[in-house]
Each structure stands twice: as C-alpha cells, then as structure tokens.
Design goal:
- The chain is an alpha+beta fold.
- The chain is globular, with a radius of gyration of 26 Å.
- The chain has a six-stranded mixed beta sheet.
- The protein folds into two domains: about 120 residues, no CATH class; about 400 residues, Orthogonal Bundle (Cytochrome p450), CATH 1.10.630.
- It has 21 helices and 20 strands.
Length: about 600
C-alpha cells in the first residue's frame, strides 16, 4: 500500500475534464489540502489494456490503490448525496460531482482491487471500464437497455461486474425455473438479510448469526395470508374510509373541488390507512369522536410519513452500500421512525395487527436485540408495506384517469359488485364493506392493477451461490462460483414484444380472456410461458405480502370511485417518466407529480 502524497502507479490512467477541456494523467496529480479541492467531472476511467484484457491469469492482478471513500460527516460539515463522493487516489483526494450512483467504502479502508477473469465453462463476462464499479454506471443509467444490449451481444446468460459483485443475469424466461428450483446451491435469504440490516440499522436477522431464531418469512406468510388476510382486509377497508371521509375531508366544503398532486394524494391516503391497519390507533374513532384527538393522531402519522419519505429517498443508496451517516436528515428520519415504533409506544395503541403483535412477541422471546433494534425491525415492516404499494396505487389510478374506456369498465364493475353485495353508498357514517371473496371477484380491477404494475415494475430476483456449482439450463450449462449472484430482471419479460404486443402501451384488458376472466395463457415463440408476470418475484422468495398489497389498491379504487368525482386537471397531460434511481427495488415512482381534482359526490 502506498501512503502520503506518493503518486499512483504509472499503469493507471484516467480521463478527467476540468471545466470543459483538459485530459491529464491522474498519476501526476496530488492534492495538498482540502481547500485545494477542485470540482471535477469524471468522464471516463480506464486501465492499461494489458490489465483489462481477459487473459487467463493464474491469480488476480493488483490494480491501482483506488477506493471510493466515505465522506466523514463530522469533519466535512456537509451532507453527502447519492451523486457526490470522495475519490482517493493514493493519498491525493479529488472531489467528484455528478458521478451517478456510487458505492462507497468505509473511511481509511484502502484496499487492492482485482480483475475477475472468466474461467472455462462460465458465462460470458463483462467487466466494464471502471475498477470495482465495473458496469454499475451503465446499468444504473438505464438497466433495461443495458441488459438488452448485453443480451444481444452475449445471449441469454452473461456476467457483469457491478460494484465489486459478479452478477450472472439470466434473461431467457424458459430458463427461470432452472434458477428458482436450485435451492440446494442458491441462497435467496442471504442478500435480503444483509440488505435489511444495512438499510434499517438492526442486527442481522439471519438465524445463523445468533441474534434471533425467528423465521421471518414464515412469520410474514402466517400473518399476511390465509385467515389473517381476511382481518387485514376488513381493517384496511374501514381505515381507508376513515381517512378519506373523516381524517382528510373533515374541513372540506361540500361539493367543492380540491386540486392536489395525484402522487401526493395516493401517498397520504395509503400511508395513513396502512399505518393504522398494521400499527393500530391511538384511540377508537368509532367510540371517540373528539376532533382534537383525531387531528393529533393524523398529525403524528403525517409526521411519520415525512420521515418515511426522507428515509425512502436515499434507500437506493443504502442498498448500494453507502452508510446512512452520510445522509444526516435521512439518518435522523430513520431514528425517529424507530422511536415511534418502540414496543413501549406500540403497547399504548389499539387494534394492532396480528403481524405486529406476533413480531413484538417473537422479538421479545427469540431475539437478543435491544429496544431500538426491535423497533427498527418494525421500520422494515413499515417500509415493505408502503414503498411499493404507494407507487403501484398511483400508476393504477393514473392510467385509469388517462383511459376513459378503462375507467368505464372499472366503475361498472365497482357498481355491480356493490349492488351484488347489497351495499349502498352514503355519507351518513355507515361504511361500505366488501369481504375478500367479493374483492377477489373483480377481474377488471385485477387486470388494471396488473397492467399498471407491469409497466412500472423494475424488481430484481437475486440468488447467492452457496458453493461452486453447475447451473443447468434448457440446452446448456454454466459453472457458477461461490458467493456470485444469479439474477432475473423481469422488466425484460414485461416489455418483451413477443409476449406483450405494444408493450409500452397501457391496455386495461391485457390480463382478461374472451370471457372477461383472468387470462393466464401467454406465449413466446409459440411456447406457453410459466413465468410471464413477476413484479412480486417468484418461487419461495415471492413477496409474502403481495395478496394484501393488491387488495389494498383494489379497495382504494373501489372507495374512491364510490365517494368521489375525480378527473385530471389537464386531460392531455403526458405520462410521467419512471424514476430509474430505484431500479431493482420494485415499483418505480413517477419522476414528477400530476395534478388532479376531486370532490365528494352529492350522495
């Protein structure tokens, strides 16, 4: 390792623009003091060809002593965002702006980087131009186009170095089952356990680490599916109506139009209703009509929402590896959410969900977590229940408002369902009630929600290799190394024109057959697909809360159409683009909000 102001080895070069022009040898440059930091934009970084080619070296080649460095909050006195970091070049520091998504190593941990070389029998390898980062910037800029390009170049399986990890992307939907059935060799929990601990700040929830013996996946299935789902649906139906008709509209003038951002509206209604459903209420609004208590409770939940949004804003950076102390306000927001969900505070609330009650019991009996770590496992539950449901709700409603034919079909189904259930809409305080069976018998809304999620989902399915093994596909096999990641990116599937005609167009009846029932027959190259719709993942790792999430969105739409008149302020408004910064995490948020207006019907 080199220290002080020694130059970088001559074999390491970089192209750096200073202002508009200069390219220079980074190995010639050192920075004497913090005040001398200049703003640089990294345009291209490459290695000498003799280090970059894929010759079969017998051992990794040590490269320049290059690391990405965590900005020390206390010393620098400013907050790091996801587009700024320190670049340490053997003792010299260069300030980089607009560097895109970055991975940052911890302070003072300088280390050697090495080139991963393809072995015989392994998938084709794309190392990228950037040491350690590899293909991270290209992938982060546009994952779908990047993977399409590599698929065209290499075929249906290839390896990319992304932020120090080697990810084998499997893009043939007929081979997905080959990955999903490899439980003996592939671990689906390791990545999720590590990500949760890193992002939410609790200790490892991997039973092998000794902090807890709880089987989290089993807990979620037990409390989010089966009979437990019925209770959640009932509670959510009541809470949505409380929020829509009392909490939000208590000060509205009857028949007066209210203009608001569509995403803002969905965010507030779904967060408040979902929070009350899972984490209970400070009082029972059916028995206590005290407006001050209602306003106080709502103020606390909306404050929690602001903390949630602040934390969620930097969540992609946390998953990428940046420590949360670099984000002062987000760190504070996460801690405040944890304080609100301490067991001593939850015990004061009424109507806690079975999920939260069981998690509290298991935390207290099976874990060695301290009080704040227990609370942060509840923050993880809160995030999981909201982060994808909110944008999915937005997209479902937005596409309905933009498509009159879809809106007519949806409202007709809602009216028919309410009539069949004997439910009458009124504003006299009597809430609508639809049970799980009735909600499940709404194929038009199902299709609309599926189509909206198909167009906005960018989830990624990960498996980590437990050992070196051979992955057998339909007509070939490949060697996979221990600790490598095998991944599926379902957006490739969702936007495949051979599976979905006009894949970028919203078609509300895409998932309906000729009899207006659920369509499950989708084909590629004349062959029927087992996997054609994967926003919730697949196999044993499929999201255990997916059923509740879809029912929540369906309930939201049913109630909105029943009680309100709604339309877009500008009927010709363009569809907002997808915020790609969250690619790989689930449903993408819109890049901007859309104005809409609503008012209570004259019932």
């Amino acid at each position: 390792m080199m220290s002080g102001d020694k130059a970088i080895p001559e074999y390491f070069e970089a192209s750096v623009t200073m202002g508009k022009t200069t390219t220079q040898q980074v190995s010639k440059r050192t920075v004497a003091s913090e005040k001398d930091h200049a703003n640089y934009t990294l345009k291209q970084l490459w290695l000498n060809r003799c280090l970059c080619d894929q010759r079969p070296y017998s051992r990794p080649v040590k490269l320049a002593e290059l690391v990405l460095y965590s900005l020390r909050q206390g010393q620098k006195g400013e907050e790091l965002n996801a587009k700024k970091t320190y670049f340490i070049l053997s003792g010299g520091e260069t300030w980089l702006e607009d560097f895109g998504e970055v991975i940052v190593m911890h302070p003072c941990k300088l280390s050697f980087l090495s080139v991963f070389c393809r072995r015989q029998g392994e998938p084709p390898l794309e190392n990228g131009f950037l040491p350690y980062l590899g293909c991270a910037l290209q992938f982060g800029a546009n994952p779908l186009e990047f993977l399409r390009e590599k698929q065209k170049k290499y075929g249906h399986i290839f390896t990319c170095q992304v932020a120090g990890k080697y990810i084998h992307f499997l893009t043939d939907p007929f081979s997905y089952h080959s990955l999903i059935r490899q439980g003996k060799h592939l671990d689906w929990k390791k990545f999720h356990f590590a990500t949760s601990a890193k992002a939410f700040g609790h200790g490892s929830i991997d039973p092998a680490e000794g902090n807890t013996t709880e089987n989290f996946h089993h807990t979620f299935i037990r409390t989010l599916q089966g009979n437990a789902l019925d209770a959640l649906i009932e509670a959510m139906m009541e809470n949505l109506q409380y929020v829509m008709l009392q909490s939000r509209t208590s000060k509205f003038q009857p028949h007066t139009w209210v203009t608001e951002g569509l995403y803002t509206f969905c965010c507030q209604v779904m967060f408040e209703s979902g929070f009350l459903t899972l984490f209970g209420k400070e009082f029972n609004p059916n028995h206590d009509k005290n407006l001050l208590k209602q306003e106080t409770q709502r103020a606390r939940i909306l404050n929690a929402l602001e903390n949630f949004k602040e934390f969620d804003r930097i969540f992609p950076a946390l998953v990428a590896g940046l420590p949360i102390h670099l984000f002062k306000s987000a760190h504070s927001a996460r801690e405040k959410l944890g304080e609100a969900l301490l067991h001593k505070n939850l015990l004061k609330r009424d109507n806690l969900s079975e999920l939260v009650m069981l998690r509290m019991f298991l935390n207290d009996t099976l874990s060695t977590f301290d009080d704040m770590e227990k609370a942060k496992t509840h923050v993880a539950v809160l995030w999981a229940s909201q982060a994808n449901t909110i944008p999915a709700t937005f997209w479902s409603l937005f596409y309905l408002l933009k498509n009159p034919e879809a809106m007519r079909a949806a409202t007709e189904e809602v009216q028919s369902t309410l009539e069949s259930a004997g439910e009458k809409i009124s504003l006299d305080g009597k809430y609508i009630s639809l049970n799980r069976k009735q909600l499940d018998n709404m194929p038009v809304l199902d299709s609309i929600i599926k189509e909206a999620m198909r167009l906005s989902s960018a989830s990624m399915t990960f498996r980590v290799a437990k050992e070196d093994f051979t992955l057998h596909l339909e007509n070939s096999f490949y060697n996979i190394r221990k600790d490598d990641i095998v991944a599926l990116y379902p957006q490739l599937l969702h936007f495949d024109p051979e599976i979905y005609t006009d894949p970028l167009t919203f078609k509300y009846d895409r998932y309906l057959n000729e009899n207006k029932e659920e369509k499950t027959d989708f084909y590629r190259n004349g062959r029927k697909l087992k996997y054609y719709y994967m926003p919730f993942g697949a196999g044993i790792a499929k999201c255990p809360g997916r059923l509740f999430a879809v029912h929540e969105i369906k309930q939201f739409l049913v109630l909105l159409f029943s009680y309100f008149e709604i339309d877009l302020v500008d009927s010709n408004v363009e569809c907002p683009s997808l915020d790609q910064s969250r690619a790989g995490l689930g449903i993408l948020q819109p890049s901007n909000d859309i104005d809409f207006r609503y008012r209570l019907k004259g019932l």
